[in-house]
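Re: your question about Aldehyde dehydrogenase family protein

S., sorry for the slow reply, the queue was backed up all week. Below is exactly what I fed in.
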Amino acid sequence: MHTKVKAMNMLIGGKWVAGKETFEVVNPQSNEPIARVPLATREQMLEAIEMADRAYRTTQVWPTHERIAILNKVANYMREHAEEFAVVIASEGSKTINEARGEVKRAAQTIQISAEEARRINGETINFDQNEGSENRVGYYYRFPVGVIGAITPFNDPLNMVAHKIGPAIASGNAIVLKPASVTPLSALKLAEAFVKAGLPEGFLSVITGSGREVGDTLVTHPSVQMISFTGGSEAGEKITQKAGTKKLSMELGSNSPVIVLEDADLSDAVQATVSGSFSAVGQNCIGVQRIYVQDSVYTKFVDTFVNRTAELNVGDKMDELTDMGPLINEKEAMRVESWVNEAVEQGAVLQFGGVREGAFFTPTVLTDVPETAKIAKEEIFGPVVLIYPVDSLYEAVERSNNVNYGLQAGIFTSHINHAFYAIKHMNVGGIMINDSSDYRIDAMPFGGTKGSGIGREGIKYAIEAMTEPKVVSFRLQENLL
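Result:
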């Protein structure tokens, strides 16, 4: 039985628009097409940017309460249609239906928090009289929107990542043009539908589908686009920074996340958390666990327990509620993961479990004795593979954890507070989770990393700060008027 292929339009400035050419969105599990969406042209991207710029410039006053009302309506719509959103996420992407339901819940919360943060975009008074000669000056600063924001999102969180771009942008009064991943555009289009139904003024949101090569440069380089918010790979991120010029940039570029397990940790808890952190969303997660450093005295026990727990994971139909892991986003990605694993094994790594590919499926894989020179030890695997190493001390674990060009998030398991604080002080990351895996995040926290992991922070409040500019106002008062 073949799935009916649905024809979709993209959103340009509040209008649903078809394309002269289209491309198919496929279900990675069956490789069957599920939708046909427009292959946008450069001219259509230009139209979206121009409409966004016009909408922003002609809306002299967009009251905060109106922005809050729209965002609340969208959050309510998402909750009322939660299962529809979940089916779209699971159909076009890699997530199981249970993981997709969790993403819908988070995305609705992301939009809700955006509504709440809209009322807290505040400035503060400035004591100008701290300078001699400025005794008769008073003033303040307030924050105003940057204008038009260009956003580019990845496939792995096709709804919540889009919500993290659109929510703060609308909350702060900006117009936004969004380019979702070509393999998972349907979730973004469904969220755009919610904004249209909520009464978002025309021009403030466009969702442009198609090839990044065709329309991406136009979005990144257009002078009316004041900020680029990008989540994706390091190579693409570096190219964007080279092309964007003096625009504001917010970039989350991935990681190779480490977790440290010390001998004083609760090993059962550590295994449970790191197995989940390694293999949820098929490992296609920027904060997923990729390297685990375990103290020598508990290393063997940890590896044995970890492998046994990994073997219990159910790989299969992502629409089955009993499934733990579905396929990767496509067979090409599964083949890449397979090649990285094979390369590591050829260089001396020991395959403790997994390493089997069937189409886009790749079994959860555990490697030990991986040489530091192997690609998989240094780069982001973005697949269901974890590397486990023995270490003799916390110092060694921290040093080796830092020895990559990424620094997004990390975790440490220990019952000793001094050990925890040593890691907090010395691990070069944007976030460290104590007695938890690196794969922990709430949508309200500042989220981002150091080194090659990106620029700036996401999380609604912090994204709003990036999407607004402070404007200083100073009054020089006239004295002796009476």
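The CA atoms of residues 354 and 365 lie 4 Å apart. The longest strand covers residues 137-145.

Happy to talk it through on Thursday.
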